[in-house]
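The protein record filed here.
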Amino acid sequence: MSYDGWILLTASLVGLVCGLVGALLILRRMAMMADAISHSVLLGIVIAYLVTRELSGAHMLLGAAAAGLLTAVLVQWLHARGVQQEASIGIVFTTLFAIGVVLIATQVGNAHLDVQHALMGEITFIPWETTRVPGLGEIPESVLTLLIVLLVVGGLIAAFYKAWKITSFDPALAAALGIPVAFMHYLFMTMISVTAVAAFDAVGAVMVIAMLITPAAAAYLWTDRLSVMLLLSGLFGVLAAFAGYAAAWVLDTSISGSMAFATGVLFLISFLISPRHGLAARRLRAHAAAGRLKS
């Protein structure tokens, strides 16, 4: 595959896996948790590096997942003690992110790990960091990691589809039916954490947040069915990857930034023209209703 092809494949995998997880995020009204976990996983990554002195491997995913779970637990702990949820999220993720930044500045040294890299990523380096896979040959490490995460996340969504659906729309009913709501919640937090760190090195926290929230929010405007929303959210993530890469090539600017911007453009288009919840459709229905009243 060509150099550009690997970059597009990496970005597409980010858009696809983030879109799947993001659809459940939007339905659960937990969009701000994506922001929180996408930043707080930095602490897990730094600690995993300090322990192993290696910047790649399963320990990075484990460290990030632990940081994501710690974020969810602390947010829930503060909220249960009277702190508003939005304030709890802000307090926890800024504190954990700040600890990660301090550790990078004081402990990491000359390793290829810095705050700018964490926020924006550098997807153009992806094709050069390869690993050999039997039957596939040399492929970028990020592509392999994202493929594994996509299979795991997709498998979990498929395996617990009904549970995700009920716990997302009506947690009280889910608890009454015997579905372990707390377990599903923390499993979901783990999925977000692993997804975030899988995309972290390639595209940075900014694009991870954009891909987790915006394509799913756009998909929500087009359908009321969870299965369709999952498919559309993943598709919009892939479309944003291709559109953003084309814009970055034309404008000679940041690839990750352009892809994040492309998600916003897709949301704006959906907000204007989607047939169910779009602005134009709402105005047409209001105009038709007004006409019926006059007649």
Summary: The longest strand covers residues 130-133.
